[in-house]
Amino acid sequence: MTTATDPPVLSVRGLVKLYGDAVVLRGVGFDVRAGQAVVLVGGSGSGKSTLLRCLNLLETVDDGEILLAGEEITDPRVNVDRVRRRIGVVFQSYNLFPHLTVLKNVMLAPVLVHRMPREAARERARALLDRIGLADKLDVYPDRLSGGQQQRLAIVRALATEPSLLLLDEITSALDPELAGEVLDLVGELKREGMPMVLATHEMAFARELADEVLVLDDGAVIERGAPERVFGDPRQARTRRLLAGARQTRGSGR
Amino acid sequence: MIAAASTAVVAVAVVVGVTHTSGWPRVRQRFFSGTEIAAAWPAARHGMAVNLELFAACGLAAGALGLLVALLRTLAGPVFLPVRLLAAVYTDLFRGLPVILVVYLVGFGVPALRLRGFPSDPRVLGGAALVLTYTAYVAEVFRAGIESVHPSQVAAARSLGLSHAQTMRRVVLPQAVRRVAPALLNDAISLQKDSSLVSVLGVVDAVRAAQIATSAHFNYSPYVLAGLMFLAITVPLTRVTDHLAVRAARRRGDRRAGGGP
Question: The CATH number of A7-86+168-255 is which of 3.30.1700.10, 3.30.479.30, 2.40.128.110, 3.40.50.300?
Fold first, then answer.
């Protein structure tokens, strides 16, 4: 059970990232508490994806710190593989392993990284795949699946290692609206089950119903933040208003 | 049907045309003499066994070492710069040298050093020269394969907590090897042919055996025999390679590839 005194699942403070002379992130900070979803919105090039890559240590940070359950993971002495085991990542382009079957995609990390017995990993993978309706596709290769199925498979692959935090990077950008719907439904379910997450998305309606906190990024800085009703209903920054006006306001699925 | 018929017509025309030229009897006697070929057969067969031995041993060694060199070049981070540099210099050097020069250098140069414990068997030295050269070729092929796997695959694997080694072994290499299989087989075919270069060190391989037989009667039929023996091995290998290439292309959904030569 979590109490108020527990450290946040994730705590980001004053994060700065440079690419050469270009400043990509200028002092970004936020917390993700147990069961919370923090949603990052912003135009392309605003720094959302870079931020997510930093959280997973796929990028080194130039200043600031990231704490995972109170432990500083930006410390250079930290074992990055150990940190990544505790964080699940879902990418825009799915990044499934094309040479492995659906079942093997899900089993790979539990068996290899978490040393789970093969049988137990298989059972767990099967249960997860059953949940997303792929129980009859265990032995097919990912390229035989629809885009929506592939992305749900990618989510399940990230869940198989029982991460304490999920990072979702524009996971519906490559999908048709009706396929995006089934992916967003799954993310909504996970949120209701209490999975803490950080998402970057263009799906404003979805962001609004899911988020506990919305961060609006522009040119590497958080220009506006707050509860979704406030940010979407009464944006204070002109840039936020412009961003919202240009974005898709309807939810992906037509329900 | 039409293709088969027209091929047959052309083949017959070529055979008839060639065999009716005025010089043909002399050509046949010099190059296609049955008795000469029969006489050279036992020696050539023994020679070919040497070629095949070299091919198998050097192929396995160059395959394993080439993979190792390619993997060394993927090591990230400033600590590994010397390793990466060394691997790069090695591949550039041996890819750029004529194979026969490496054979001479290793085959004649190493024994001249009179080092204790070093093998002096020309087959071993010739084989070592082939391994040095082909390791560089194979390393380049593997490197191209590794680089052809999209970085997002590495990102996905690493974010699942896989180490660099696990990512290479379970995610990158399986995809890379599948893609470069045709190119690797091409190198294998070249190696099988280049195994005859050890003959310059005095190893009696199929080519050397044919040369000895030829010089006995100034009849070139043993060369033809040796050539046919090489073709008997390399042509099927070539067909397998083409088959793999077509299959790989089809898997990628490219329908333009395909068809025969």
Answer: 3.40.50.300
